[in-house]
Amino acid sequence: MRLVRRGHEPAWLPVAAVAVAVLVTVALSAIPIRLAGANPRAAFERYLLVPLSSTLGLYEVMLTATPLLFTGIAVAIAFRAGYWNIGAEGQFLMGAVGTTAVALNAPDLPSWAALPLGFVAGGLGGLAWAWLPAWLKRRGAIDEVVTTLLLNPVALLVVQGLLNGPWRNSETGFTDSDRFGAGYDLPPLISGSRVHWGFGVAVVIVVITWFVFTKTAVGMQIRASGQAPDAAKFSGIPVARLRFRSALVSGAVAGAGGASQVMGVQHQLTQGISNNYGYTGIIVATLAALSPVGVVLVAVLLADIAVGAENVSLVLQVPTQLGAIFAALLLLTVLSAMELRHYRLARSGRRRHGATPVSAEEAS
Amino acid sequence: MTPTRPLLELSGITKRFGDLVANDAVSLSVASGEVVAMLGENGAGKSTLMKIVYGLVRPDGGTITMDGRPLDISSPRDAMAAGIGMVTQEFSLVETMTVTENVALSSVGLGRVDVRAARQRVVDAMDRVGVQIEPERLISTLSIGERQRVEIVKALFHECRVLILDEPTAVLTPQDVRALFETVQRLRRTGLGVLFVSHKLREVAEISDRVVVLRRGSLVGERATAEVTTHELASLMMGGTAPEEDVASAVGLPVAEVPEEAPVAPREGAGTAERRPVLILTDVTLERPGRPALDHLTFEVRPGEIVGLAGISGNGQTELMNVLGGVELPTSGRVEVDGAAVTRLDVRGRLDAGLGRLTEDRRGSVVPQLSVEHNLVLEDLPSFTRRGMLDKAAIRAHAEEVIRRFDIRATPTDPVSSLSGGNMQKVLLARALSRRPKVLVAAQPTRGLDVGAYRYVHEQLHELRDTGAGVLVISEDLDELRSLCDRILVLFRGAITGGLPVAEATSERLGAMMTGESVEV
Amino acid sequence: MSINVLALLSAMLTIATPLVWAGIGELIVEKTGVLNLGIEGTMYLGAFIGFLVALRSGSPWLGLIAAIGGGVVAGLLMGLLTVTLGLNQHVSGLGVTLLLIAACEFAFRLLYTGARPTLEDKFQVLLPDVPVLDQHWLTYVAFLVLAPAAWWVLRATGMGYRLQAVGENFEAADVAGISVTATRYVALMVGGALMAIGGAFLTLAVLGNFTLDIINGRGWVCIALVIFAKWRVWPVVLGALIFAGTDALQLQLAITKTFSDIPRELMLALPYLAVIAALAVWGRKVHYPASYLQAYRRG
């Protein structure tokens, strides 16, 4: 048997490929669940269904999805333009730093000023961090994969340096910042829940992105720049400029995610402010096939599993990392299945070794 | 000269890609000391067949034998072991490695390489072929002709008995072609079988003992070269149904040799001389390391004329296209479109100044995943946008009108990637023409098209000229230029070596200019 | 102010060791045109498996062998994704890193809740009484065997020719009868093994225990070093030594209290910033392997 590239592919094929990938992911994640001594069936019920079956669980899912919405859409914006921004992690962190800088220097602002300022500072932090690789790409054609990636650990070191130095907690002496003033607390989006207005901001950004991608000339130019840069250039589309700007917008959106996280959840800067959100954003955007609607669906799915994983770790003693395992497996299996769908199995036509003649009947 | 015994034999080779039959039960043989030419248009299935013989593509059926022994070739290594050597169309050399390293690449094991012994073997091999290149030079420092010689040495480095040359002359200067032919003759005398793949009739007639003709994947004829006329080969290649002059011009046969068809007379040209040129290049220079790619290039195109730019590829055509299109800025000089200087303008500015373009690289000019209607407006988005928003109704209406007018076989929402080459060229032509350009620059506008599409493109270009626009056609194909243009300029090493009205543009005179002999206009 | 130069040099060699192992591993992979961003996860896997097996069996040797096995498997996984399936290399690499780290953390949490196990028998330094030379055998091998061997293989052997040919022009390699697939798989497996050894060195030789932040970006440092070295062996070693030197110096300064207000984080950020600065200065002159980030498909 061997793989042969398909001539035509039926419309249901991509759907089937994703379905198969999900099944494979579930089957593979059942192994660590078993190893942890839990029943995979019961565990998956808790991973997938329990969080969504109660209002409280739903709120937790929304809360957990919020940073992933920011980083997912940020990565999608850059990838759409053909700019491989692997640096959402660092941009998210620097967004948190930007917000913290404002919050620590102007602690007493009223919330009508503090919240917009916090988001702007966060966005600028992320944008600033995205600027250097984007500029190097535009000026010197320097590959952005490596530069954006390498700035992630640097951003974490910046956070650590600040928390070990000037921003060390003045009361406890621990390596996290002072608590922000009350003006910087993002109000709950749904009263009585932890879901904060960061979720609302993220959804607004997703909707705007969807609108730009599908309805505007700029959106079409971005798409052309990402899919066929030479043809786009030939048609007079300023590919380099669009990529540069998309990279900056991407950084700003990731930075706004950092702002949302410090103002909505932690209310102070901590070393663990980004729980791999930037890297997970790459998973989200890729699984979403870079579509804004897809970003929402995938972010909610991964958040659902993450919340479920917390729950399962308490009840069934399966470590919470199962959520991360599931997300990474899903990424790899979906990508693989979407590639494999271009092929079909055929009976092997030719023998690999030996000098046997190949007849047309045997080969067909 | 007479073939002795069949060496390599292919029989019933079949290969399908989806619905496309690239090779349909093709059989042919090459004997020791014989040069067999395989002739066919672009897309006739020649390259696929060669890749099958060399183990780069697996056939769906058929057998390959050497000396009557069946072979199972599933990789180039198998082919080499069986005594088959190939020089691919795009060279297969590692630029960062030396000549020796490249030649030895296919025979090194995993362990230590004895560089000195390898170098000696390479030098010996070069002596046998009659090639002299310093074995320690990096490939990146070699000229195109030298690289091809390294390729031949590489192919012959093993106990090679059949050498395949896939379109070997496409990138060569006339001098290099001459040297190549001498090498081939020399090798033939040593008993090597040569399979010479080409779409150029003249070369085939000169070099081969026997010709096989491939059309749409099938073998349609096999003749001894001495006993066949080029016209017969041409109609075999084209299918024999098309009018003779189309056949002739489409396959690169000089139109002048078709008795009843004289060269197209120069057009009336009334008043064109007095009217302001629509395209003027003045001293356009584009510096490149070593030698300028464009060297004080100066010429003009007037409204209502089609100017051909002939020349062997690699003499600045690509760079000229980039400079004209605004993809690259010239080092110095001046470009004017319809009286306005566009030298420093980007693509957008040039389009707005009235420049239209049709490039050689069709697939590189469209966004494959976007629909036909979106590709059609890609160069003119501002006209189809209202306050930044795409005007969907206008885009659809435009696409429907263009599809009707240009007879494109597609719906507005089909992705362009699903279109045939001819339809894709129609989309590009429609996109360029619907902006009503003052001057259209077209590079190899008919390459790889079937006869119908070929005629269609020529008609459209003539129609555009008759509406008063200027057209510049860049092509390697003299016969296409002679049937299409009003006057022909020749590009050599980035400069114009001369120009002739089409009536005076004989192949001989053009040929002389293409190798650098200056002729007064 | 007193800086103990000998202690500094000794620390520098130890800190550089995992970077040399994994950096040369990444170099070999990248020579074939594959960017293996799975390196961070592969080092993590090596550190964890090495520790786990050594703890269970009582033998650091078995731990090392298991780590090598794990690294080979990680390389195979990268090969499946980027060579056989031809998927986007950076997304696949990040996916592999995230998967491996999550899986190891999962296993560690599952096996050792609360407890902090330590190896009873870890690799001991050779020549404990000789300053500077008081290094682990893996350090000696890294500098005296691995680096010269890698240099020689890349420069003078058929294997080296193959790696370079695949990385620079895979069509040419294919036409020359060199299997692009096999070459890339071999590079990924060998590279994966070296990365895993680099990780295992930390648990089996230096620390004797496993912590969740054990690799802490060292894989990304290696990515930086390989580019900084322009894909050459000795500059990778040199870069590792410079990075380790600044880190060791910083530790010394912290001890001597003289310069303790120089932020350690700034020192740690230096290798990344140095690479970005170098890329900015070299600009277009950096010659990446020509088939970098590309999948090979015949036909």
Automatic annotation (TrEMBL), chain A:
<keyword id="KW-1133">Transmembrane helix</keyword>
<keyword id="KW-0812">Transmembrane</keyword>
<protein>
    <submittedName>
        <fullName>ABC transporter permease</fullName>
    </submittedName>
</protein>
<keyword id="KW-0472">Membrane</keyword>
<feature type="transmembrane region" description="Helical">
    <location>
        <begin position="195"/>
        <end position="213"/>
    </location>
</feature>
<keyword id="KW-1003">Cell membrane</keyword>
<feature type="transmembrane region" description="Helical">
    <location>
        <begin position="112"/>
        <end position="132"/>
    </location>
</feature>
<dbReference type="Pfam" id="PF02653">
    <property type="entry name" value="BPD_transp_2"/>
</dbReference>
<dbReference type="InterPro" id="IPR001851">
    <property type="entry name" value="ABC_transp_permease"/>
</dbReference>
<feature type="transmembrane region" description="Helical">
    <location>
        <begin position="144"/>
        <end position="163"/>
    </location>
</feature>
<feature type="transmembrane region" description="Helical">
    <location>
        <begin position="12"/>
        <end position="36"/>
    </location>
</feature>
<feature type="transmembrane region" description="Helical">
    <location>
        <begin position="322"/>
        <end position="343"/>
    </location>
</feature>
<feature type="transmembrane region" description="Helical">
    <location>
        <begin position="277"/>
        <end position="302"/>
    </location>
</feature>
<feature type="transmembrane region" description="Helical">
    <location>
        <begin position="56"/>
        <end position="79"/>
    </location>
</feature>
<feature type="transmembrane region" description="Helical">
    <location>
        <begin position="86"/>
        <end position="106"/>
    </location>
</feature>
TrEMBL record, chain B:
<dbReference type="Pfam" id="PF00005">
    <property type="entry name" value="ABC_tran"/>
</dbReference>
<dbReference type="InterPro" id="IPR003439">
    <property type="entry name" value="ABC_transporter-like_ATP-bd"/>
</dbReference>
<dbReference type="InterPro" id="IPR017871">
    <property type="entry name" value="ABC_transporter-like_CS"/>
</dbReference>
<feature type="domain" description="ABC transporter">
    <location>
        <begin position="279"/>
        <end position="518"/>
    </location>
</feature>
<keyword id="KW-0547">Nucleotide-binding</keyword>
<dbReference type="InterPro" id="IPR003593">
    <property type="entry name" value="AAA+_ATPase"/>
</dbReference>
<dbReference type="GO" id="GO:0005524">
    <property type="term" value="F:ATP binding"/>
</dbReference>
<feature type="domain" description="ABC transporter">
    <location>
        <begin position="8"/>
        <end position="241"/>
    </location>
</feature>
<dbReference type="InterPro" id="IPR050107">
    <property type="entry name" value="ABC_carbohydrate_import_ATPase"/>
</dbReference>
<dbReference type="InterPro" id="IPR027417">
    <property type="entry name" value="P-loop_NTPase"/>
</dbReference>
<keyword id="KW-0067">ATP-binding</keyword>
<protein>
    <submittedName>
        <fullName>ABC transporter ATP-binding protein</fullName>
    </submittedName>
</protein>
TrEMBL record, chain C:
<keyword id="KW-0812">Transmembrane</keyword>
<dbReference type="Pfam" id="PF02653">
    <property type="entry name" value="BPD_transp_2"/>
</dbReference>
<feature type="transmembrane region" description="Helical">
    <location>
        <begin position="32"/>
        <end position="54"/>
    </location>
</feature>
<keyword id="KW-1003">Cell membrane</keyword>
<keyword id="KW-0472">Membrane</keyword>
<feature type="transmembrane region" description="Helical">
    <location>
        <begin position="61"/>
        <end position="85"/>
    </location>
</feature>
<feature type="transmembrane region" description="Helical">
    <location>
        <begin position="219"/>
        <end position="246"/>
    </location>
</feature>
<dbReference type="InterPro" id="IPR001851">
    <property type="entry name" value="ABC_transp_permease"/>
</dbReference>
<feature type="transmembrane region" description="Helical">
    <location>
        <begin position="266"/>
        <end position="283"/>
    </location>
</feature>
<protein>
    <submittedName>
        <fullName>ABC transporter permease</fullName>
    </submittedName>
</protein>
<feature type="transmembrane region" description="Helical">
    <location>
        <begin position="137"/>
        <end position="154"/>
    </location>
</feature>
<feature type="transmembrane region" description="Helical">
    <location>
        <begin position="185"/>
        <end position="207"/>
    </location>
</feature>
<keyword id="KW-1133">Transmembrane helix</keyword>
<feature type="transmembrane region" description="Helical">
    <location>
        <begin position="91"/>
        <end position="112"/>
    </location>
</feature>
